[in-house]
Amino acid sequence: xxxxxxxxxxxxxxxxxxxxxxxxxxxxxxxxxxxxxxxxxxxxxxxxxxxxxxxxxxxxxxxxxxxxxxxxxxxxxxxxxxxxxxxxxxxxxxxxxxxxxxxxxxxxxxxxxxxxxxxxxxxxxxxxxxxxxxxxxxxxxxxxxxxxxxxxxxxxxxxxxxxxxxxxxxxxxxxxxxxxxxxxxxxxxxxxxxxxxxxxxxxxxxxxxxxxxxxxxxxxxxxxxxxxxxxxxxxxxxxxxxxxxxxxxxxxxxxxxxxxxxxxxxxxxxxxxxxxxxxxxxxxxxxxxxxxxxxxxxxxxxxxxxxxx
Amino acid sequence: xxxxxxxxxxxxxxxxxxxxxxxxxxxxxxxxxxxxxxxxxxxxxxxxxxxxxxxxxxxxxxxxxxxxxxxxxxxxxxxxxxxxxxxxxxxxxxxxxxx
Amino acid sequence: xxxxxxxxxxxxxxxxxxxxxxxxxxxxxxxxxxxxxxxxxxxxxxxxxxxxxxxxxxxxxxxxxxxxxxxxxxxxxxxxxxxxxxxxxxxxxx
Lengths: 309, 99, 94
What we know:
- The structure holds three protein chains of three kinds.
- Chain A is mostly helical.
- In chain A, about 70% of the residues lie in helices and about 0% in strands.
- At the A-B interface, α1, α2, α3, α4 and α6 of A face α1, α2 and α3 of B.
- Chain B: One of its GO terms (cellular component) is plasma membrane.
C-alpha cells in the first residue's frame, strides 16, 4: 500500500518536472517548478529525511519560486519575458537519456555503503547537540558549512556588483507599490509575527529535532520578504553598515569558534566536548541571522530605483 | 523493486530531464529552472543512496541541505546576470542562438 | 471508531477537492475558477485536517493542525484577492 503511494508520488514528480521542461511559456515553467518543489518535499518526508524536507519546502519551492517570478517580472520590463521557441533537440534528448540510463545502471551496481551508524552514535554525545544532522553540519563537517556560508556571501557580493551605477546607494530590490488599505498590506502585518515565531522556533529546536539554522533562517528570510512585498517594512539601502554586520555575523562567529577550538588544543574547527554545546548554539544563532539576511537580499536582488544626487 | 530504488530512478530521470532542458531550452530563465531540476534530481539520487541500510544517513542529508542553499544562491546570481544582460541586449537568449 | 471518523471525514474532504479541481478545469473565466478553488478546497482541507485530528496522539497536534488550516485559509484568501485584482486590471486595460 505504501509502495503504491510512493509510486504515485514519483509519477507526479516526474509528470510535473516534464511539464516544467516541455510546457509552453516561461511563466508556466516557473509555476510548475514551484509545484515540483512541494512534491519533492513530500518525497523527502517519505525517505525519512525531515530536515531536508523542511529545507526543500522553504527554499526549493518557496524562495526559489519567488526569485524566478521576480526575475520573470524584471525580464518583462526589459521586453524579454516572451518565451523563445525551443525546437526538439535530438542530441540533448540522447544526452539526457544516456545520463539517466547510466545512473540507473550505477544504482544496481552501487555497493552498500559502510554504515557510519555505530561511530556516529558514539560521537553524537560529544557533539553538543542531539539532532545528528545538526551535529554533522555544525561540528563533524564544520569545514563544509563554514565555506558554504562564505559562498552565500560571495554570491551576494557578485549580485551587488551588477547594480547600475545610477542605482548604487538605493534601497535593494524593486520599488514596491502597495495600496495602504489593501489585502496585501493587511497580510503583511498579520503573517510576520507568526512567521518570526516559527523561524526562531525552528532555529532553537534544531539542536535536538528536525530544524536548524538553514531551515529557520529561510523562514525568517521569507518573513522579511513578505513584509517588504507588502510595504510593511522598507528594505535597507545597499551597503548599510548594520546590515553588512548581519551578513558577516555567521561566518565570523563560526571562525571564532574554530579558533577557540585551536586555542584549547583540540585543533582548528574541532570543538572539545566541554564547550561544544555553547559554541554550537552561538554558531547556530549567528548563522541563522546571516542566512536569513543573505537569502532575503539575494531574492530581492540589486537596487533598481535611480538615485537623484 | 523497493521504494528507495523508485526514488533513485526518479532522481536519475530528473537529472536526464534537467540536462535536456538545460541544452534544449532557448530562454535563459528556462535554462536556470532546468538546471535547478537537474540539481534537485541529483539530491534525490544521493538521498536515496544514503537511506539504504538502516535508515537515513545524516551525512548525505547535511550535504544535501548545504547543496539546496548553495543552489539558491547560485540561481540568484545567475538570475542577476540574466537580468543585467537582458537590460543591455533587450533579450533573454544567447546571441549565437537568436533566430 | 476514530479510524471510521478519519476515513469518513477525509473522504468528504477529498470529494470537495475533486469538486474544486473540476471547477478549476471547467469554469470559463478567472473569477469563477478562483471561486471554485478557494471555497471548495479550503473546505476540503478543513475536513481532511479534522479527519487527521482523530489520529492525533496529543491535544498539541490537534492545535497544530487547526493552526495550519487557519494559515492556509489566510494565505488562500489573500492570494485569491490578489489574483482577482490582477485579472481585473488586465481586463480593464484590454
